[in-house]
Amino acid sequence: TRGTDTVTLDQLPLREDLRGRSPYGAPQLDVPIRLNTNENPYPPPPELVEDVTAAVREVAAGLHRYPDRDAVALRRDLAAYLSVSTRVPLTERHVWAANGSNEVLQQILQAFGGPGRSALGFEPSYSMHPIIAAGTRTDWVPTPRRDDFTLDTERAARIVADRRPDVVFVTSPNNPTGGSIPLDELETVLRAAPGIVVVDEAYAEFSSQLSAVNLLDAYPAKLIVSRTMSKAFAFAGGRLGYLAAAPAVVDALQLVRLPYHLSLLTQAAARAALRHADQTLASVAKLAAERDRVAEALQGLGFSPVPSDANFILFGRFADATASWQAYVDRGVLIRDVGIEGHLRVTIGTPEENDAFLEASKEVPR
Ligand code: PMP
């Protein structure tokens, strides 16, 4: 055996607080129907593929130089998209971008969390929030949602006022439960928060609620709205997340970002993809209609789907969710066991994929 194969993880001088932890990871299984990571099931249209390819070809001649460190042109394009879709005028000074919204969230905790500081989230929610908190050594304060997974914002505000976390995460629509919160309820939390409130709007395009971007001018020292091109934009493989906030927040994040974190190729590809936003986002209405059809069909089969404003549905009940998850896999359908007792989460796919999922749902053990 090679020397490199003789050392195990517990023999390494790893940080004590990371020992025994598991990395984030949904199983990436090679099955026909993959409805487990909330991606857009529709591949990019040929014109978009052409445009991305041409854009990458053009910038490739400059690959010997570092890219624009501030990604100004891309941020301007993202600001233009947000301004049109939310009707809140924003410029590149209000927008920051990174490799997926996970990196955006990590930079936020690097700047506003960290050792001796805390971040609070309403669980169940996106499982990366506590993992990013752990990685940045930010204390995590889990706070429960109601039994029906909605957020009791009056109670949330009391807890936030009491615990005084440096950062509060509100995911809207919430992953993995699907519900979103109206702006007036969000304001109840914002008013109570002593520090930063991150509204994680990864699924905002699927939602019927107004974006928290509308509250930026009222809470400029508190509010950060995080977005991604991974879901509605069908650009998960391109890795592009972004945020909208006051320009001062963008200045703060420059202190922790790595120089040239967004590659020349990423910036060019994301800008090309954004030029086709209208075409890509045309899938949103189709997916929302499919979501409602699947929820109704699940109901008809005797399941209890949780009302969703996103491109996925949490549903139950199962006596043994993990065993039922495996029964779906055995039928070629990969969905997600998110660790909520009695429940599984399915991402909305194409009508054919959804039908295959519904067929399997008739057969799996409850
Ligand atoms: N926030 C939420 C709520 C998510 O569900 C996800 C993706 N699962 C992300 C952020 C991160 O996505 P990405 O890094 O691809 O932008």
Task: Give the mean pLDDT.
Answer: 97
Question: Between the first and last Cα atoms, what is the distance in angstroms?
Answer: 47 Å
Low-pLDDT segments, ≥5 res: none
Helix content class = 25-40%
Main beta sheet, described?
7 strands, mixed
In the sheet with the most strands, the strands line up as: 2-8-7-6-5-3-4
Strand content: 5-15%
What is the string of helix and strand elements? EHHEHEHEHEHEEEHHHEEHEEH
**Structural class based on helices, strands and sheet pairing:** alpha/beta
Count of distinct strands: 12
- Structural Rg: 21 Å
What overall geometry do the principal axes of the alpha carbons give? globular
Say which molecules are bound, naming each kind only once.
4'-deoxy-4'-aminopyridoxal-5'-phosphate
Total helix count? 11
Summarize the structure.
The protein has 366 residues and is α/β, with parallel strands linked by helices. Helix content is 38%, strand content 14%.
Notable features of this structure?
366 residues; alpha/beta; 7-stranded mixed sheet; 3-stranded antiparallel sheet; 11 helices; binds 4'-deoxy-4'-aminopyridoxal-5'-phosphate; PyrdxlP-dep_Trfase_major; Aminotrans_II_pyridoxalP_BS
